[in-house]
Structure formats: C-alpha cells, structure tokens
TrEMBL record:
UniProt entry keywords in alphabetical sequence: Glycosyltransferase, Transferase
Enzyme Commission (EC) number: 2.4.1.20
Gene Ontology MF terms in the entry: carbohydrate binding; cellobiose phosphorylase activity
Domain Glycosyl hydrolase 94 catalytic: 316-743
UniProt name for this protein: Cellobiose phosphorylase
Length: 817
C-alpha cells in the first residue's frame, strides 16, 4: 500500500497514539471511564459525558451530524489579557487561530491535548478516576516568553437536560426548565426531568474565580458560536445564572505567570445523586446535597489527588493488559494484541453499540447479540465483569427462549422499541457462557438463578436459559428444515419475510418469528456451533444424555445445511418468504455471501468432506479485496423490497457489498480450521488498523482501533472506513489472532496451544494468565503442534490441564509441517 499523508504515530512505550496535526480526516476519538462514568473525547476536545446510560443520564450536550462534525465538548480557552488574543489548546473550537505546535495523546482511558501560541503553552489532561463518578481536567499553562504574562483561562461545557432524546426534541418544554445553582464557586446543574430523579451535576475549579457563567447566550453572545464567545473576547465573565434556555458551565480564572513559570488549574465535572432517605434534601425538592458531594469535589481539586488518580488509572491498565502479551515477527500484530485491540474490546464491552462518533447514545442500548459477542474478546481481561454482564443479558431473555434485541443499561429491561424476532439472538448466549466457562472453569455459574424478562418469581438456573436458547431455534424450523430467520439474523438488513397476499399488490413485512417462513443458512451454521458448545457444557455437568441429544441435533442440522444450504461451490445464504434461494449462482445479484461461509465452517460443517475448503476458495476468488472481504457479490444495483433494507444501501456500502469487518474474522478462523495460516494471516493484516495507518487519507477513521465497515470494491470510496470503535469486529479479530492464528485458546479442559501460523514465521513468544496461573509460551516451527513440553515434561497433543493458581508454567510448543 502506498504511503500517504500521516497524522500521527504510535508511542508503544507509553501505549499512546500521538496525533501531531489536528485536522484529521474525521474526529479521532477516545473514551474516558472504565466502569459507570464515561465520556467521549476527540483529538480536538469534542464529545460528551454520561453516567451509566448515554440516553437517560447525559451530563453534557453534543450535536451529531454537525458542521464541522466535531462541535461541542470539553473546551478551555486561553486569553492573553494584554493583547486580547485568545485560542483553545485543542484547536477546536477556534481553528482559525494558528498554533505554534499541537499534540494530542490518546492513551488508555485518558487523553492529553496541548498546543502553544505566541509563547504561551497549555496542555489539558482528561480522565475519569477509578471508582468515581466524575472526570478531571488538569490544565497546565506555561509562560515560555522572556517577560511576564497575564492570561485568563475559561472553561466551557454545555449541560444536557439528562434525557438526551427529549433534550434534542422537546424544546417547548426544555427552554423553560434549565436550572443551575452556584455555591462557593461550584456550578451545580440541578434541572429535574419529568420524574423526580434527585440527581445533579457539578462543575468546579481549583482556583479562585474571577467570574462564572451558566447561561449560554450570556457566555457566547447573541448570534455567536463557540469559536468566538463574547465573554472570552471581552475578557470578563458575566456571572450569569440560567433560568431555562440553555444552561452551561464556565469558570473564569486569571493567572499571572513569570517567565518559564507553569501554573496548574484543575476542573472537575461530576455526577451525584441524593439518597432516597436524604433528610437534608427530600425527594422532589429540586435541591442538591452539597454536604455530601463537597468533600469529593475538594479532594479532586487537589494536585496530589489528581496525580495519584492518574497513576492509579495507568497501573490499572498495566494489570489488565498483563493477562496476555505476545512477541511475534509482526510489529502491527504485537501492537494490536498487546495494547489497542485489547483496549477496544474493553471499551466495546462497556458501550456495546450505544455511544460513539456514529452511535448517538439515544437509539440503541446494550445488544443481546452484540454483548454476548463482545464477551469473547473481553472475558480474559475481567472475568468477574463478564459474569455480571451475562447475568444481565440472560435476565432479559423471554420464557420461550427468545430475546429482546437490545436493553437499556440503566434499567436492564428489554427495549420494546426494538423488540424481538432476530432469531439468531438466543444462540449467542450459549457462545457467551461457553467462553466464560472455558476461561474460568466456574461451573457453579450455571446454577445461578436468573429471571426471564426480569419478572420476579420466574427465576431458573442459567443452564435452563441455555436449554431454551437452543430449543427456540428447534421450535422454529422452515420448509427445508433450516431455522426461520424471523425479522433478521446477524444481518439486520436482510429482511426476507416480505410478502404479498395478492400478486401485484404492495408487499407487507412480517417481523415476528412465527409469521414468516423465510429460512437462514447462517443461523443453521450458528446452531451447529452453539449445539456443540452446549453439548460440551452438558458433559462438564455430567449430563451425558443431554450431551448426546445436543450433538445429535448439531449433526442433523449440519446434514440439513449440506443438503439444502450448499450451492455447489459455497454455502447459500437463505430462502426468502416465497422459498426462493438467496446467495446462489441462480441469482443475478447477491450470489455469494460471506456470513455462511464463515459460520458454517466455524460449526464444523464441510470440514471432513472438503466443502469448507471449497467455500473458502470461493471467498478468496469472489469476495476478497485489498481492503478486506466484502459481504456479498455481486452488489445489489437497486432496491428489492423482498430483500428488505440490505438493498437500500448504494453498492459497496454497509450490508450491500461493503466490507463489514465483523464478519472477516470468521473467515480468518475458518482458514485456520482448514490449516491455511498464510491466507488467515493475510486477511488479518488487511484489516489491522496499525497496518493501515500509512493509508489514513484513504481509511480516514482512527488508525488505532477497528471500524465496523470499510467501503467495498463497488463503492467510489473503496477503502474508506466508517462506524469506528463500537463493533463486534474488535472481539472477533482478537479471538481470530490470539486463539486461532496464534492458537492460544481456552477450552473446557484447559489451555490449548494450537497455532496455525503463516509460512514465513519461525514462531513466537507469549505470556498468558489462565485460571490464576501464568503460562510462558514459546512456539517453535511452522505447522501443527504435535506435542508440548510443559516444564520440561512431554505432553502429547496440544492441551494443557489447568495448573494450580499462582503457578508459573513454562510451555514449549513443537510445531511440524
């Protein structure tokens, strides 16, 4: 790939991506927070903050699809009080002010942005401390001149009125309800919203204030934007108090700096709730309990607290990333596995698909399918949180085994706006639980009581939820014996239950599981995989009879796929409402799809009779491009109502023959299953963000994390990425490279070392924590592992039984071609 313009570089030692010019092709973002308080921050300080739920507990306001895209965020203005010149250290929102130097360092749950202008340098560190419901902005201002300087700092945020959906639509009400209170120079945002929530936000500063503002129009001025606030221009705050309209928070601090002097100013933005039994502030009083929150504010306005909080955050990530590290012949692989892919897996686990530069935090909560897949790349990092998430997901399952497609993270209730009928959803719960059990060996987890649909009194053991997940598919089979697709399977845009009662009449859409007969070969492949996993779980519980039943169900479905899902050179995709085949050479467009080629092989279909290898050859011949594997070919050239949303996209974008990166790792894994390490690793590098850094002008999205999709070969912008950060691509690529190409794979019976490496590699080294023990692994040679040397003792095969917690185990894997 030809080297084009770069916007930064990796600092592997600091585990940071350094952006040295602010005009990146798109906003390149990072995330603050690790548990309950979160924020999005771009390389120019754009973004917003929320507590637990980006829809229902939004602290600060942000406008998507704005022009420029990234407007509204955590802004700091620096003003030279002698000349009136002002600018922002983050470039935005004052991009017309030329900077003498700029640097953004995106690290693991923190970001530093700094720049200089006319001899004044300012840098802001943004992070959310561990265990707190707040974020810190540590601003350091340095006078690099030879004479003293008088400068002003202005902070600026815009408060959201909590419910982000209502905040952006219900202006006839919202313009009247904004309320703030300023006490002892702390700005409290206390707007109540419909129900009395008894919560509030606060914004505080470590330095004595020259003034403050809480009304947006007072701060910006009439008909002005964030690029030229009237208060900053004038150099004096107005001490405005918001009564309705648009409440904001801004502090004004004056600093006198000697030559070479650096001053530190700390801003703290946080969230707090009044307890239900608070005798000081009874429910509905529209007051804030300053007595409780003031000690927290004062503690985090101290430099030593901030320094320790920042150090603790970095140490936290040292511990998390220490669970798996690799040293391979490929630096891009090492960088992604050891740092950025693992980091993205944690962020995606936290966010699901709710809040990014492309997900507004309003329309989607946590996904049933999504979150189970996210577990696959996360469970080794924090298994206890994976356990908690599985219980949350399972509790939204319905009694018939079906699932709400999404649920809200705050309420943990199924999202009725999205509903159910995505017939693949229940099967992913089995895969998520299996991944947890393989990592931890925690069989008692299966007996954990979990309700159905969060209804009290409906509790059943988690294992029963898995049984019903499998039964859900078996109870919904179509004319060919393949699973009914329902509203959709993994591909939400493939909506095949469209029909017309009368020829020539408009089509109707059947979105529930029982009202349509369209069938999915993809779900069939997923069922085979899930049934085998459930059989393995049954065997661990000593339920041999159930194991036999599940393995028989898998074998029967595999036979059905071979009979009705094979098209001669690849696996078909589906059958529509009328029984017409989709993903076949019989079709004029959409002849071959990626999903069944990956998932059927993952389930083991076609491995013994050569169908799997033939299907993967078809992928290489017909779907692979230099930027990744497209979803289907040929692209649909126009809208086809009987196929649903998939054909509404222009050719080459999203589900219509785009490179939907989530599916590519399935093919990587499938290639390792047929023993083709060269092709598997080649596909891996085509998507690897670090390997694509040199083409940032083409790729456009962040070069340190995966995107959901890349424009396919039918698109005018082939190679351009969209929808970065929150995607199952993160977990699946991590699984593909670590568990299948490098082959370090947890299993029910221990840790399996089964690499399928590219031919040019002499081997690699790895350190893996597993069930409390540490494994120092050395792989030598290219080929399949025939035996292991475990602490010098020969072990046949490639499975290491779990060692005692605390043990350090030295493993040599001997691979032969």
């Amino acid at each position: 790939m030809e080297d084009l313009l770069r916007y930064g570089y990796f600092d592997d030692e600091q585990r940071e991506y350094v952006i040295d010019r602010p005009d990146t092709p798109l906003p390149w973002i990072n995330y603050l927070g690790t548990d309950a308080y979160f924020g999005i921050v771009s390389n120019t300080a754009g973004g917003y903050s929320f507590y637990r739920d980006a829809k229902l507990r939004r602290l600060t306001r942000y406008r998507y699809n704005n022009a420029p895209l990234d407007v509204g965020g955590r802004y700091v203005y620096v003003r030279d009080d002698a000349t009136g010149d002002y600018w922002s250290p983050s470039w935005q929102p004052t991009p017309e002010r030329e900077l003498d130097g700029y640097e953004c360092r995106h690290g693991l749950s923190y970001t530093k942005i700094g720049s200089a202008r006319n001899g004044i340098r300012a840098e802001t560190l943004y992070f959310a401390p561990l265990g707190e419901t707040l974020e810190v902005w540590r601003v350091r201002v340095t006078n690099e001149r030879t004479e003293s300087a008088e400068v002003s700092l202005f902070s600026a945020i815009e408060f959201c009125l909590w419910d982000a959906q209502d905040d952006s639509t219900n202006f006839q009400r919202n313009y009247s309800i904004g309320q703030v209170e300023v006490v002892d120079e702390v700005i409290y945002h206390k707007t109540e919203y419909r129900e009395r929530r008894d919560h509030f936000a606060y914004f505080a500063c470590s330095e004595p204030l020259a003034g403050f503002d809480t009304q947006r129009e007072s701060f910006l001025g009439a008909y002005r934007g964030w690029d030229r606030p009237a208060v900053v221009e004038a150099g004096a705050a107005k001490d405005s108090i918001a009564h309705g309209w648009q409440p904001v928070g801004s502090h004004h601090v004056r600093l006198a700096l000697e030559p070479g002097e650096t001053r530190e100013v700390i801003f703290v933005l946080g969230y707090a709730e009044n307890p239900k039994d608070d005798k000081f502030d009874p429910p509905g009083s529209q007051t804030v309990n300053k007595t409780r929150v003031r000690p927290v504010i004062e503690r985090w306005l101290r430099s030593e607290t901030v320094e320790k909080g920042y150090a603790d955050l970095r140490a936290y990530w040292d511990g998390l990333l220490g669970g798996l590290s690799v040293t391979t012949p490929d630096g891009d692989t090492d960088r992604m596995v050891n740092i950025w892919n693992a980091y993205q897996c944690l962020v995606t686990f936290n966010m699901s698909r709710s809040a990014s530069g492309y997900e507004s935090g309003i329309g989607r909560g946590m996904g049933f399918r999504d979150s189970n897949q996210d577990l696959l790349g996360f469970v080794h990092i924090l298994p206890e949180r994976a356990r908690e998430r599985i219980l949350d997901i399972a509790a939204t399952q319905k009694a018939d085994g079906g699932a709400y497609h999404q649920y809200q993270p705050l309420t943990k209730r199924g999202n009725n706006d999205i509903g159910d009928g995505f017939n693949d959803d229940p099967l992913w719960l089995i895969l998520g639980v299996a991944a947890y059990l393989k990592e931890t060996g925690d069989l008692a987890f299966l007996d954990e009581p979990v309700p159905f649909d969060n209804e009290p009194g409906s509790e059943a053991p988690l294992y029963e939820h898995l049984r019903r997940s499998l039964r859900y598919t078996l109870d919904r089979l179509g004319p060919h014996g393949l699973p009914l697709i329902g509203r959709a399977d993994w591909n939400d845009c493939l909506n095949l239950n469209c029909f017309s009662d009368t020829p020539g009449e408009p089509f109707q859409t059947t979105e529930n599981a029982s009202g349509g007969v369209a069938e999915s070969v993809f779900i069939a492949g997923l069922f085979v995989l899930a049934a085998k996993e459930l059989a393995g779980i049954a065997a661990l519980r000593g339920q041999d009879g159930e194991e036999v039943v599940y393995r028989a169900a898998a074998e029967k479905m595999a036979g059905t796929v071979t009979e009705h899902g094979w098209d001669g050179a690849w696996f078909r995709r589906a059958y529509d409402f009328y029984g017409n085949v989709i993903g076949s050479g019989e079709n004029d467009e959409g002849q071959i799809f990626i999903e069944p080629q990956g998932m059927c092989v993952l389930g083991g279909v076609g491995l013994e009779d050569g169908l799997a290898a033939r299907a993967l050859d078809s992928v290489a011949e017909r779907l692979a491009t230099p930027h990744g594997i497209v979803l289907q070919q040929p692209a649909y050239s126009g809208y086809r109502i009987e196929l649903g949303e998939i054909s509404s996209y222009p050719p080459g974008y999203k589900e219509n023959a785009g490179i939907f990166c989530h599916t590519n790792p399935w093919i990587m894994i499938a290639e390792t299953m047929v023993g083709n390490g060269d092709r598997a690793f080649d596909y891996y590098r085509r998507l690897n963000p670090s390997a694509r850094e040199a083409i940032s002008e083409v790729h456009r999205c962040e070069p340190y994390i995966y995107a959901q999709m890349i424009a396919g070969k039918d698109a005018p912008t082939h190679g351009e990425a969209k929808n970065s950060w929150l995607t199952g691509t993160a977990a699946w690529n991590f699984v593909a490279i670590t568990q299948w190409i490098l082959g370090i794979r947890p299993d029910f019976g221990g840790l399996r070392i089964d690499p399928v490496l590219p031919g040019g590699w002499p081997g690699f080294e790895a350190v893996r924590s597993f069930r409390g023990a540490t494994y120092e692994i050395s792989v030598r040679g290219t080929g399949r592992v025939t035996h292991l040397l475990v602490d010098g003792e020969r072990v046949e095969g490639n499975l290491i039984p779990p060692a005692a917690p605390g043990a350090v185990v030295r493993v040599e894997a001997i691979a032969t071609a």
